[in-house]
């Protein structure tokens, strides 16, 4: 572009022409095309003026790389903006043949190649952006499906083709911006593949990744099978962006798409007309076949008629020859056969006329047959051509149906996925509402339980404050009573042993057992009665049981035939088990004690009813 800048101060016609050409072409958008290795970019021409100036010298590589990054970012903005506007204006799914979409992939390829380190191999140096794209599946697990699909494609043999296929699949998945952001955020991994001042390592890469979010509104559909991605030339077509200012952006693309849609509608209409024409021709062929069969039948009839006419003509010839001979003979004898000769001549004329008519009819039938054969050949040729066209149209129709079926299947699968996600979302919302209600109930119960616990603690404190001293005093009294009880039990055992020895002596002596028992037992009972009365006075300070519970226990213990356990001797007691003499009435015992004391009192003629006396006798008399 330095050649466009004149070296002298005086303007010349040549410089004016060059300036005008530059104004009409490149300076329309203030960009210029430059080559740097294997990539194309746009450089801003802010440093170049149309007036003669000395050439700027920007030999700094950092400045060049920064300028290249800025130009690539601007080209990415233009391509993404144009692609979104054209897609929204068309309102349909884009395919791989759409020119702005192809240019977008070319620009993305140049952005990924900018500042890429060359890998040395046996065949030389190789620059490929497939290596950085393979890292995406490690950063985003969802990209593993795309990488596996790219590796499984049979037609891809080079890393460049795999990278192009990866970009197309990511755009179809509407996650290209997400993958690029995840890749750009890991500068430590990208440093293995890019130079420090490359586009992917600077902030321009993050800006481009943010611009790619707008492409999520585009529905793209690519058929990767059969597409040669390895040998495509990645050159940016700047003519799409160098347009007249008065023309709206994307008008050419809209016109092309409109023309393609019109052509598609025309082809569909032509297909319908051709199918109708084929049906009509098929009906005509059927009619011609029927007429051909009729004509062949008529031809066979005509041939038979011709044969019969030829036979008749031969017969007429023979008759005419015979008539001529007879006429010759008759001429000799004119006088006799004049009238017969005239009749023979008339008959000869009629036969010759009939022969001529038959020959004319035969010639007409032969000509008609030839015309029919020629028409049949032309019809067969036309039918073959129509059948070939019909086969091609049917093939196109099958392809369109397959594409329609595939698109409908994808639409159904996407609808089902949306329905499943919506159902899952509704179920999760219901579960969330249920959990929230449950949490509220549990919180209410927790607050109620906390209130109850506080009340219980308060009651416990009040109870301890009111009854703490009484409980301690009662515990001390219970301990004292237990000690007295153990002391009394020990004394009762001693008395029992003493009584058993005295009883044995009384049995041996057999002298007045009743009087001895009365006197001895009465003395002991009186002593025991005094001790028990004293213990009863001491036990009166203990809390007594309720009268109702005491009455219930007495009713249970006084039931008929109920076997009771004596509280002192631990022996079962029942009136059914004791043998009482018939004339002896035994009063009801004290509840909880056996009948031995009562029996002793009755036999000794001592009045019953003294509880302490019965208890002491039980301790003394029970074995």
From TrEMBL:
PROSITE patterns: RUN. SMART domains: RUN. It is found in: Endomembrane system. Residues 494-519, 532-560 are annotated as: Disordered. Residues 95-227 form the RUN domain. The keyword Coiled coil applies. Residues 271-361 form a coiled coil. GO terms for cellular component: axon; cytoplasm; dendrite; endomembrane system; neuronal cell body. Keywords: Coiled coil, Membrane, Phosphoprotein. The keyword Flavoprotein does not apply. Pfam families: RUN (PF02759). One of its GO terms (biological process) is regulation of axonogenesis. Gene3D superfamilies: 1.20.5.170, 1.20.58.900. InterPro entries: RUFY1-3, Run_dom, Run_dom_sf, RUN_RUFY3. This is Protein RUFY3. The gene is RUFY3.
